[in-house]
Amino acid sequence: MLLFLTGTTLLCLKGSLAFGGILCVGSVAFLVALCIISILLHERREGKILYKETSYQYLFFLSLIAWGVLFGSSFLDPTAFPALLMGIIFSAFGGDILALSLGLYMDLVYCLALGLSGFYTAGYVGLTLCAVLLSRVLRQQKRFEKISSYVMMEALTVGFAAVAGYFTDLHLTYEMLLVAGGVGVVEILYTMLILPRFEGLIGHEEVALYEMLLDPAYSLLMELRSFSEAEYQRACKVAHLARLCGEEIGVNASLCEAGGLYYRIGKMMGEPEIDHAVKIAGRHNFPKELTDILYEYEAVLKKPSSEESAIVHMCDALVKKVEAFAAASSSMESSWNQEMVIYQTLNELSSLGIYDDSSISMNQFLKIRNRLVREGSLV
User: Fold this and answer.
1) What span, in angstroms and rounded, lies between the C-alpha atoms of 55 and 52?
2) Is the CATH number 1.20.1300 carried by domain 215-374?
3) Where are the domains of the chain?
4) What three-state secondary structure class fits 354?
């Protein structure tokens, strides 16, 4: 809050606003800031932003970079303002809504403080929105999509400068385009070199959270083991298989493992198991994605809505079927029989349409099935 207050004040002074102007800009900025704080708290409460000990230090450092860029841009022509960078900087913190809100705040303050026209405001808002949408593509590992995004960023930056220069001053110079091209290069370099580092640092918080939840010494797991050693060992088996399958198709393997480990945690409190599981998840501050998997237990109340949830459902159903066959007949010691059970169980579940809402593809389904067959004895 102090950083945003200081930045807004300095920008107003740079724009040579009188006291009344500063008061007006500050009032508008204050109201927008309250909305952003509400969004921030909502995103955190909903589990869309992960924290370790409720630390906002990364958001502070990202904001510091954004204000530095904003203040530095105030010495350039308005056509060279890196509006794309405003959205990309905050995309590293997580949550498109938060990134868009903070980016639009920067655009609004910049235009009000420097007295720019509504044309510039609308242009900056459009560029920031494009940046937030492009940030989704930039998180992918596909080289072609990333290169296409970089080209689009450069084209948007130069294109806006050309349009703004023509419609505001009715002239267009090579110098303006050259400066805009340089700004586009800076935006691309930031996206390539700095953005991944911040995303990696913030990603450590998610890693630390799952490491805690998967630690055998974690209090909830110790409670489960005290409740039933057999149930604990079964949970470990499902978690192990779920992680292997998650790694096989390239989804969040830690989420798959945690989902398998806590899938039947509601049994400790009896019926209704799903309600109790969700309550336990709430008390232990589980991520929303993990809580969703518990809510979708056995597709009773809701079908699996993610690849990870589908994987956990498959592994749990398969372990249940294999254990039932193993208890009924010693013939399950034959790997051929076990392979038939794997094929039959997963094919039946797929034919029932249980995984239709999980966005899991047929190719991913076949990879999971083959990985489980290669695993060997599941008894």
Assistant:
1) 6
2) no
3) 2-198, 215-374
4) coil
Using CB atoms within 10 Å of the CB of residue 109, give its burial: 0 to 12 exposed, 13 to 18 middle, 19+ buried: buried
Q: How far apart are CA 134 and CA 129, in angstroms?
A: 9
Mean pLDDT score of the chain: 85
Eight-state DSSP code of residue 218: S
What do you get for the CA distance between the two ends of the chain, in Å? 57
Q: Please report, rounded to a whole number, the percentage of residues in the chain having pLDDT higher than 70.
A: 90
Quick one: average pLDDT of 307-319?
Answer: 93
DSSP 138-184: HTS--HHHHHHHHHHHHHHHHHHHHHHHHHHHS---HHHHHHHHHHH
DSSP-assigned letters across all residues of 6-61: HHHHHHHHHTT--HHHHHHHHHHHHHHHHHHHHHHHHHHHTTSS--SSS--HHHHH
For residue 331, pLDDT beyond 60: no
Given a contact cutoff of 8 angstroms between Cβ atoms, the answer to whether 42 and 55 are in contact is: no
Q: What is the pLDDT of residue 180?
A: 85
Which residues lie below 8 Å from residue 30, measured CB to CB, with a gap of 6+?
none
- Whether 177 and 158 have beta carbons less than 8 Å apart is answered as yes
170-185 pLDDT per residue, tens: 666 777 788 888 888 9
108 alpha-carbon distance from chain centroid: 26
Cα(346)–Cα(190) distance, rounded to whole angstroms? 45
Confirm whether pTM is higher than 0.70: no
